[in-house]
Amino acid sequence: MGITLFLMSKKGLAVLNCLIENAYLKDIDAVIVGTDKNVINDYSEEIVELCKKEKLTFYYRTENFTVKSAYNIAVSWRWLIDLPDNKKLIVLHDSILPKYRGFAPLVNALKNGEQYIGVTALFASEAYDTGDIICNEKIEVQYPITIADAISKISTLYQRIVLDIFKEIKENSSLEATAQDESKASYSLWLDEQDYKIDWKKEASYIERFVNATGYPYKGAQTTLKNESITVKKVKEIQDVEIENRDVGKTIFLKEGKPVVVCEKGLLLIEEASYNSTNKSIFPLKVFRNRFE
């Protein structure tokens, strides 16, 4: 049979471990490893170490390699994969397609408070994430939830889907797929540095989801306090009060040296935050009058 894997992130590592544990080691032709400097840990080192341990052929994405497999699977892959016409590429995408086509779908789904998150396996197409769907899996979300916890949950879905694909290819040498319903399609935009900035004009419930969705392994939610950049790591929405002059970003209460910040709707207690310049905690705050921008 033989399948080549294009892997990155904790999800890629989970898939590789699962295939090895389920006796599919000999069915892996090669592993192509991606690296990503935009996250704190891209798990490329762990993937490489596992390949070495199991004596799997592997290449870094930037190296020269030739794909010989009829079927290829990409997990957490961010780059174009150019294959001959007789080679098929299966992409695993962090959403329940056709919703959230594109970039950072899991982050954006969590920010938006979606009831379900999931994974879709589809055949690659010229227009991204529009190919025929092989299968998908979803789970219900209970908020609050961090991005790290969400990744762990959907990593299980990745493992289950890839195992099913390996089994189907091995038994039948083919995969069935269904066209997407274009009337239900939506898109998810890529993220840059500005997308990590907290907008205090949003509701407290949204900002809580935002902080949780952009935390580790991402760089974390950003704001400014007295002209110093800080990373907000943990927050909690608390009961709102009537404010006659609602000026968002200002501290309304100080609880044991930790600020309660006014949002467009609702209040937010900052429970954990650090200065980017020193990585030291901003707490306890000794001054009551603080504005977060």
Can you walk me through this structure?
The protein is of the alpha/beta class and 293 residues long. It folds into two domains: 3-188, Formyl transferase, N-terminal domain (Rossmann fold), CATH 3.40.50.170; 193-275, Roll (Methionyl-tRNA Fmet Formyltransferase, Chain A, domain 2). Helix content is 23%, strand content 27%. It contains five helices and 14 strands. Strands 3-2-1-4-5-7-8 form a seven-stranded mixed sheet.
Poorly predicted ranges = none
Q: Terminal Cα separation, in Å?
A: 56 Å
Largest sheet: 7 strands, mixed
Report the CATH architecture of the largest domain: 3-Layer(aba) Sandwich
Number of domains: 2
Computed over alpha carbons, the radius of gyration is: 22 Å
Outline, from the CA principal axes? elongated
CATH topology of the largest domain: Rossmann fold
Determine and state the CATH class of the largest domain.
Alpha Beta
Query: What is the CATH superfamily classification of the largest domain?
Result: Formyl transferase, N-terminal domain
Strand content: 25-35%
Name the average pLDDT. Answer: 95
H/E element order: EHEHEEEEHEEHEHEEEEE
Can you give the helix content as a percent range? 10-25%
**Tally of DSSP β-strands:** 14
Q: In DSSP terms, counting alpha (H) and pi (I) runs of 4 or more, how many helices?
A: 5
In terms of structural class, how would the helical and strand content be classed? alpha/beta
Keywords: Transferase
Domain Formyl transferase N-terminal: 87-149
Organism: Hyunsoonleella flava
GO molecular function: methionyl-tRNA formyltransferase activity
